[in-house]
């Protein structure tokens, strides 16, 4: 049963590292675009076409992007603290307390819900922005969202907006997958340590 203990522990560490990495990617990319848009958030912004070649962007409240950055920053910090604990507990079994694994399940669940909200905000916001660009029906023009990285946004710097937000979108869903998987690993830990399972962590850690 010691093998199961180490397999679950290593899987948990790997998932925590994945959560940290993806969270940092989202925070950096969204934060960079927030700076490019002078503190405003282009996600779900209103595209106003003034002609067939010119548009204005009514950016959404900056709190939207701040929420995304903040949630992922908190999630990365939580994952970092807990990955340190898991590494120490794997190396020194006496520091592996059962109460910590009981606490981690609701904690992981809360983080998964928050990250789900963050990922949904990015996906919906980017789709809404791109739909605004596509709203001008011109048969002879190609209005793919990515194309608008090359045009003049007037008061904003829109270069790289689609690339950054699409990467942030993918990373957000990777982060969500990592936290959901952590919930599953935490539950497996708790189930495996029930008295009737006969599972005892190395060094009889409790």
Automatic annotation (TrEMBL):
<keyword id="KW-0812">Transmembrane</keyword>
<keyword id="KW-0472">Membrane</keyword>
<feature type="transmembrane region" description="Helical">
    <location>
        <begin position="97"/>
        <end position="117"/>
    </location>
</feature>
<dbReference type="InterPro" id="IPR029673">
    <property type="entry name" value="TMEM179"/>
</dbReference>
<dbReference type="InterPro" id="IPR059010">
    <property type="entry name" value="TMEM179-179B"/>
</dbReference>
<feature type="transmembrane region" description="Helical">
    <location>
        <begin position="173"/>
        <end position="192"/>
    </location>
</feature>
<keyword id="KW-1133">Transmembrane helix</keyword>
<protein>
    <submittedName>
        <fullName>Transmembrane protein 179-like isoform X1</fullName>
    </submittedName>
</protein>
<comment type="similarity">
    <text>Belongs to the TMEM179 family.</text>
</comment>
<feature type="transmembrane region" description="Helical">
    <location>
        <begin position="7"/>
        <end position="30"/>
    </location>
</feature>
<dbReference type="Pfam" id="PF26158">
    <property type="entry name" value="Claudin_TMEM179-179B"/>
</dbReference>
<feature type="transmembrane region" description="Helical">
    <location>
        <begin position="66"/>
        <end position="85"/>
    </location>
</feature>
């Amino acid at each position: 049963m010691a093998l199961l203990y180490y397999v679950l522990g290593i899987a948990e560490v790997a998932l925590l590292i994945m959560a940290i990495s993806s969270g940092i990617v989202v925070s950096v990319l969204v934060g960079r675009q927030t700076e490019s848009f002078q503190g405003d958030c282009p996600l779900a912004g209103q595209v106003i076409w003034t002609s067939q070649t010119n548009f204005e962007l009514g950016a959404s409240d900056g709190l939207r992007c701040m929420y995304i950055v903040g949630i992922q920053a908190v999630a990365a910090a939580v994952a970092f603290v807990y990955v340190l604990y898991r590494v120490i507990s794997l190396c020194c079994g006496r520091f592996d307390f059962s109460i910590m694994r009981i606490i981690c399940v609701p904690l992981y669940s809360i983080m998964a819900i928050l990250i789900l909200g963050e990922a949904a905000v990015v996906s919906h916001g980017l789709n809404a922005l791109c739909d605004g660009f596509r709203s001008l029906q011109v048969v002879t023009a190609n209005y793919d969202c990515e194309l608008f990285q090359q045009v003049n946004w007037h008061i904003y710097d829109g270069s790289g907006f689609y690339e950054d937000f699409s990467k942030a979108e993918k990373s957000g869903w990777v982060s969500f997958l990592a936290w959901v998987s952590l919930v599953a690993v935490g539950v497996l830990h708790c189930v495996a340590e029930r008295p009737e399972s006969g599972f005892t962590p190395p060094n009889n850690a409790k």
